Amino acid sequence: MTLKYLIQFYRNTLLIGVIVTYISSLIFGYDKVTKYLVAGEVGEFVAASIWFVVVGLLVATISQLAYFIYLFINQLGIGIFGKIWPHVQIVVTVFAIFDLVYFRFLRFGGTDQIISFIWLPIVVIIFAIITSNIKNKQSKKNLWIPSMFFMIVMTTVELIPFLRVEDTSWIYLTIFGLLLCNSYQLIMLPKYNELSLEERKKKEKIKGTSTKKTK
């Protein structure tokens, strides 16, 4: 990917992370942001807004790092496991779904609270299915399993710092930003690669024309 489109790719991912996280803060973080606006405390509202813009940048950055780590893991998995790599991905994905419910429940929940922890894997799975279907249509290859692996396993890894916090609102504040950033990167990377390839071809064509004129 050329530097021009790599910067665009990063920038757009950052924008998604900031916008989605900030909107989530207004909806799910009433006591952290919105209450100041309602109370007319403009200074506090602006300060809280700036804080959640920074959180949005952090969410997008975590998503970007996880995506490029996934690309490395995927190639490493293909090299080590070969043809059985898709089956390994399925097993790891199932464990990740289980972990989203069980380990948070084990840390904070009680026997009567398990239902309140099920919504998280359901949301992740819905996003994963939608994204995987779109990704699969982009390619002649079957990319459904690796797409599901990325959307579920890597999102679970990204959520670990927020799952350890007892304040559930932090999960609401970050989950949608992470999922949308992940979806965007997975779906849009081929487009940026194509644009980069076209740009290289144009540069080579111009270079070739200039060389002929010089001769």
- Computed CA radius of gyration, to the nearest angstrom: 21 Å
Main sheet, how many strands, which sense, barrel?
none
The coarse overall form would be flat
Residue stretches low in confidence (pLDDT < 50, at least 5 long) are none
By helix and strand content, what is the structural category?
A: mainly alpha
Q: What would the average pLDDT be, to the nearest integer?
A: 87
Number of helices: 7
Helix content: over 70%
Quaternary organisation of the protein chains: single chain
Beta content comes to under 5%
Total E-strand runs: 0
Write the element-wise H/E pattern from the N-terminal end onward. Answer: HHHHHHH
What distance lies between the first and last C-alpha atoms, to the nearest angstrom? 31 Å
Give the arrangement of secondary structure elements.
Blueprint: H1 3-28, H2 30-38, H3 42-81, H4 85-108, H5 115-138, H6 144-163, H7 169-214
Short description:
By secondary structure, the protein is mostly helical.
Task: Describe it.
This protein has 215 residues and is an all-alpha fold. 88% of the residues lie in helices and 0% in strands. It contains 7 helices and no strands. α1 packs across α3 (42-81) and α3 packs across α6. The model has no long low-confidence stretch (mean pLDDT 87). This is KinB-signaling pathway activation protein. It comes from Mammaliicoccus lentus. Keywords: Membrane, Transmembrane, Transmembrane helix.
